[in-house]
Records
---
Amino acid sequence: MPFMKSFFKAFENQKKQKADTKILEPPETPTFPVSFEIDTNRVYVKSTLHYTEDLVEKKVTTGHNKTVYFLYLEPLSDTKDMHEYFYSKLRKIRSDENLHRTLSDMDSARLVHLSDAISEILSGKSLVLIENTDYCYLLSTTSVIHRDVGEPDNEQVIRGSHSGFVENLSVNLQLVRNLISHPSLVVKYTTLGEVSKTKSAVIYMDGRADPIVVEEIHRRLKKIKVDKLMNSGIIEEYMEDNIYSLFPQFITTERADRTALNLIDGRVIILTDGDPTALVLPVTFFSFFQSTDDYNSRWVAGNFYRLIRVISFLLAVTLPGIYIAIITYHYEIIPFGMTFVIKDAVEHIPYPPLVEALFMELTLELIREAGIRLPTPIGQTIGIVGGLVIGDAVVNAGFISSIMIIVVALTAISSFVVPVHEMSMAMRLLRYPIMIMASLLGFVGIVFCLTVYLIHLCKLTSIGKPFFYPFAPFDWKGLMNRFVRLPHTVEVKNEQKEGKNNHSSSS
């Protein structure tokens, strides 16, 4: 298929060009050593921070007339203990040796360059400048503000843990550590954003995660050169293998237990400070149809609902197109008993089925978007009342057939069954090309679109790993392990058997 090869090649070239334009080396910041003149140090710090008025400067004189300055940003620092205990203790010190010993005994770090201290002040630490001293101290006074740990609103489960991530990276790492108390759990920090200086963590289990994948993730993170990074969505876009694909290549979750399960399965997690969302990578297409409830319920029920989710995906993508194709070209396949019912419903509609479907789909998107933007009680009311009122009005006015209302309702319900929001959004976009091709070519157009989607899925990768695994490449054992949820007792036996085989082969 030369057309498809040139089509995907053009997108890959555009992606490479965009990546090349984004990789820019930041300018180096000149170092500024700590001066013996304490006023010079103070002026440097205040001028570097542009004389911001929330920079607090506290002067303390020790018992032997040594001047000490404390500089910190008031909104970011918790200095209550410093005021109550430390200042009074400094005033009683009568020698340089005791002064430096007191500062060293605290949770502090010693620096010889003031330029290195600026970023620490911006993270909430307090700078200590001492008269006639060519080094300074940094005290850990960061004020931690975060909401309480609770269950994520968009990932609620019936049974199991109800702990979800918050906007504080340290708290999120604590939740993960509480679930996985194993020495092989590795956390690697990185700072992203030239201006925002956002702290991110790459988490994986050494010995389970693929070292090549871990190395590739670090390489891609180093290439991210942006001024601000406020959420994980920017990381996701920069690290995707194909940014033009409608299919999400990472899973996002706010659940600590789901994150721990993915770590044990050998995947890598990226957490970002200020964002409760964890990025799970690499993933496969069928990972989006798995839910935490699958492992908290009986294995038969878990597999049944996984199958329901796959069927819902197919319905959400193809059902409007199938309706358009049948009404426009293939009405002969309608059962005889339903012929007159459907005929009475559609014969007085002034628009072709494609216009009907587009009108209702776009109306549903408007209602959904309005429900999200409005406050929760009002948003729920808009969704229910808007759907009932508009649906009843357009049918009574003769603009839309009642059959189309049923089709759109089933399509909307099917799109909500998939547990990952990003895949649900992709499903809503994937149906529009199918609707257009169904109106032009009937079932042939639907098959053509599905074939293009299937080829794209087979070519797609997630951090270099096949996205459509275990079907492309086909792996029967992988199909049983990933798509089918086996009983926990069988899974444990398989893991023990694999461990013995690996041990015997290594010995």
---
Amino acid sequence: MAAPGPYMAGQITGPVPQLPPGQLLYYTPQPSPHAQVTWIPNPYSTADIFPETKASHTKFPSFSELPIELRLRIWQFAAHPRVIELRSWGDTQRNPYTPIKYSITPHKPPSILQINSESRQEGLRIYQRVKIGVSTTLLDSSRTYVPWDHHPQNLYTPRNRWRQDSFVFPLAFPYKPVEIYINYSRDIIYLGPEFRSQHLQSFLTTTGQGFELSGVQHLALDRKLWIGSQQGRWEYLRNSLYSLRLRPLKALYIVPDDEVNCLNDKFYYKPHTTSLLEPPITYKFRTAGQTEFAKTVVENLGEWFERLWVDSGREPPKVLVKSVRRDGRRMGDFREGAWEVQKMLGDMRVWKNWVPIQNT
């Protein structure tokens, strides 16, 4: 058999596991996996005009003499939109006792909160303090908890501390939530390349006191969260996306070109600016034997949201693709990442009749 070409649509590699009754694969193989792809320059791209310019004037000695209404208006313009990246830690698939830890990529707090008392007062009106990680802090009153540093399932805990033949393992105390100032109407929450897919469903679907990001309006997901699980069961992603009905989401972004190893650790794990821009190219494609262009992931997801948001009382979110920059630097290959997302999702035919499981 000839080796597959560089552009494949909806192809599953490796054996497909048997699914329990009632479960469907997240993607569906095409009758013919080959596709003809056309890449088109994006006239709306901002990716090539991103270089920042330094302000020629950084001081305005007469600012305090301006009318208060004008000063407050200026402070509002100083609250620039940001990309806030979330990361998660803890391999709960390998070890279910591992506590999940959420962190925020190193960043600088909004400058408006640090200039003077007037700017801070206006900043506290614009931003709200939000806790990230509350979905992991709910405790089961019927279970015993111990610190993870002393947990018997922690590889670094001395084994002689526990008699495992007669001991029912306790749970590990959860990590404390982290706090950050967010302006939901301007800031993009980005679940980046170090946000584990195994944590996505619990992070977005937990309700009650563990409800995360209640006011999120702009949410971005890294490529790894779109391209599937090794088991071929991606119900967790559909459940996660459906749970966004409970939030005032306006836009959902696919980020196909971010990479952890493309930025030196001394920059990646220290404060730096992350930006999501209009990509330099877009694409359209035909599957083998077809004359009409097939629908892209963006189009199929848009239709899926429209169908499931009908009775939500909210407008369905727009689905867009963005290209990432870290301190103005490109990361991965946008074309390769975008097509990887497309080929793994395929034609999304199993989404068309999908409905969430109702709790009884």
